[in-house]
Design goal:
The strands form five sheets. Strands 17, 18, 19, 20, 21, 22, 23 and 24 form an eight-stranded mixed β-sheet that branches. Strands 1, 2, 3, 4, 5, 11 and 12 form a seven-stranded mixed β-sheet that branches. The chain has a four-stranded mixed β-sheet with strand order 7-10-15-16. The longest helix has 32 residues. It is rod-shaped. By secondary structure, the protein is an alpha/beta fold. The protein has 18 helices and 24 strands. Strand 13 and strand 14 form a beta hairpin.
Length: 600
């Protein structure tokens, strides 16, 4: 049994994790997980005060016109102004602008010359990627989405004087930027990204060690933590630097990034740190550089380790939920979900990324499966109990208890007009003395099955078995149409069925018995009679007593009815008057009739 339970737990856990993986990573849930991870892990924490952005903003564009019309003397003046500031220039100047085409040769060469003399300028270039089929190491054809179709580089004289880095921004499937590329091997050379190159130059000029982060994938990517939302870094208008409004000395030994900072320049993306907002590309580079400086980069955690840990946790949770009550299982689900988010955050701070909601989804699925299993099990158990209960209590009573939410089992009853039927086996005591107990039980069960079926077929309520006798009530606990005639029809069916049973047992045991039946109608108290820990649903009163006396007075094979019953059914039965007979316990006689047949 333990082995089977273990196999069951393993099967459920495996199915849940597989379903969750498919649901999470091949649908909208994957984006939901990334969004939750962003809110959990991306925290605003700008700590490096040595990163500045000189923005080509609306003020700059108003003063100097569109960037495409600029003479290269303008960026040359900016580089010269920064590097000749009192006390020294920036540690590195990075241009998030691609100067790919020559315009005015003299101005272009002057810009290149100024950058060359400075020795701290990093210029942007860009790769144009396309998906390309390639042969992998195992000989299979794979598709490389980062195949370099062509390169956009600075014009020749500028490229010779500056360091370059590709400024491509990498957007995830949901439209948010979370990853950066450290470098790319192209035509036998390692080409670094703009952020990586600026970081390296900054460290070298400070005399610090250059440590590039570990990467993953054929395109050498890594995740990074944002340090601030849009506007989190010090942003200075390029126009204010050029006209001296801002003292260039503030940039001494700093990282200076020059790039688009105006909506019309169409260089903005959605950052992971602030969903549904925009961040200029130059600010994203600033966040990447600070992440490199602070060592706040991440790689995806090993999938098999995470899967193994998740499977173990799910298996334990499955085992617990099988034993715990629903309330405790719910609390445990909440605790484990909070614990998972805490662990995911801790792992993130240590340089690894794991799904934030995969394990909680698995746990939730197990929880729901257990709730459904418990619900179905309870329904089946209740159905079994009710079916067994119906063998001891009138089925109508059981059905009312199970369906009526307002039903209450309380002592007491109500006065109802009912029809009461008693039936008893004649000669049963004498017969039982000459038969084996097993044979007596067989005969008794056969007769009681007949009486019970007849009662239920006509909508009556089986009140009780009293030895070899049966009592039935019609029109209780619920209203029943034509209930007096139904009681008479029940008696007739019992008598008709008794003949076939008597013949059967006469052949088998040489014994034959028959029924005596009495039917009466009138008012009776119907309800729960007894005490608070043991009660019986029954009918009591003179009407019931009279029916019992009629049954005891009936001869074998005879059905006796009272005059009240006769008056209610006389047009539909064949009845012969017996006359007034004295009944035990009654001071006055009762006029009775014998049923000989039905007219319908």
């Amino acid at each position: 049994m333990k082995y089977q339970n273990g196999m069951k737990a393993a099967a459920v856990t495996a199915a849940v994790i597989l379903t969750s993986y498919l649901f999470l990573f091949f649908g909208a849930a994957g984006m939901i997980d990334q969004g939750i991870s962003d809110r959990l892990n991306q925290r605003e924490s700008v700590t490096n005060k040595k990163i500045y952005i000189i923005g080509i903003d609306d003020k700059t564009l108003e003063q100097y016109g569109s960037v495409n019309t600029w003479s290269r003397e303008i960026p040359a003046k900016l580089v010269s102004t920064l590097n000749h500031a009192q006390g020294g220039g920036p540690a590195v100047i990075g241009f998030d602008v691609i100067y790919s085409e020559q315009a005015d040769e003299q101005a272009d060469d002057y810009f290149a010359e100024v950058c060359g003399e400075s020795g701290n300028v990093v210029a942007a270039m860009s790769f144009s990627f396309k998906e390309q089929p390639e042969q992998g190491e195992d000989g299979r054809i794979v598709y490389n989405p980062y195949y370099v179709d062509h390169v956009i580089e600075p014009y020749d004289s500028l490229r010779d004087q500056v360091m370059c880095g590709f400024a491509n921004t990498f957007v995830d499937g949901d439209g948010y930027v979370r990853q950066a590329m450290a470098y790319l091997d192209y035509e036998g050379e390692r080409v670094y990204s703009l952020s990586s190159r600026i970081y390296a130059v900054y460290q070298q000029n400070r005399g610090e060690e250059v440590v590039f982060p570990d990467t993953y994938g054929r395109n050498n990517r890594f995740y990074f933590s944002y340090s601030g939302k849009a506007g989190g870094y010090s942003v200075v208008s390029m126009a204010d630097v050029l006209d001296g409004t801002v003292d260039a000395a503030i940039f001494r030994d700093a990282v200076v990034l020059v790039g688009a900072y105006a909506v019309g320049m169409q260089d903005s993306y959605m950052p992971a740190i602030a969903h549904n907002s925009q961040m200029y590309g130059v600010e994203i580079h600033a966040n990447i550089i600070e992440a490199l400086l602070e060592g706040r980069t991440q790689l995806p955690a090993a999938a098999w380790v995470y899967a193994a840990a998740g499977a173990l946790l799910c298996a334990l949770f499955y085992g617990c939920t099988r034993k715990l009550r629903l309330l405790y299982s719910t609390v445990l689900l909440g605790v484990l979900t909070a614990f998972d988010l805490f662990v995911a955050r801790s792992i993130y701070l240590h340089g690894r990324i794991v799904p934030a909601v995969l394990i909680p989804i698995c746990l939730l699925m197990i929880y729901l499966l257990q709730v459904i299993r418990g619900y179905v099990t309870e329904i089946l158990r209740r159905r079994r109990v009710l079916n067994v209960f119906k063998q001891y209590v009138a089925p109508q009573i059981v059905d009312k208890i199970s369906k009526d939410k307002d039903f209450e089992l309380v002592l007491g009853g109500e006065n109802r007009h009912v029809a009461v039927l008693f039936v008893d086996i004649r000669g049963f005591t004498t017969m039982s003395e000459s038969l084996q107990p097993e044979e007596v039980v067989e005969i008794l069960n056969e007769y009681l099955s007949l009486t019970t079926r007849a009662i239920f077929d006509h909508g009556g309520t089986l009140d009780k078995f009293v030895g070899d006798a049966t009592m039935a009530v019609f029109n209780a606990p619920f209203d029943l149409d034509d209930y007096i005639f139904r009681a008479v029809c029940t008696a007739w069916d019992m008598q008709a069925g008794a003949a076939a049973i008597a013949e059967k047992f006469s052949r088998r045991y040489g014994k034959s018995v028959s029924f005596g039946i009495g039917v009466n109608c009138g008012n009776a108290v119907v309800g729960n009679i007894g005490c608070d820990f043991r009660m019986d649903y029954t009918a009591i009163g003179d009407t019931v007593n009279t029916a019992a006396r009629l049954e005891s007075s009936a001869k074998p094979g005879q059905i006796l009815i009272s005059s009240d019953v006769y008056e209610a059914v006389k047009d539909r039965v064949e009845a012969a008057p017996i006359g007034e007979i004295a009944l035990k316990g009654k001071s006055k006689g009762v006029f009775v009739y014998q049923i000989n047949g039905l007219k319908v």
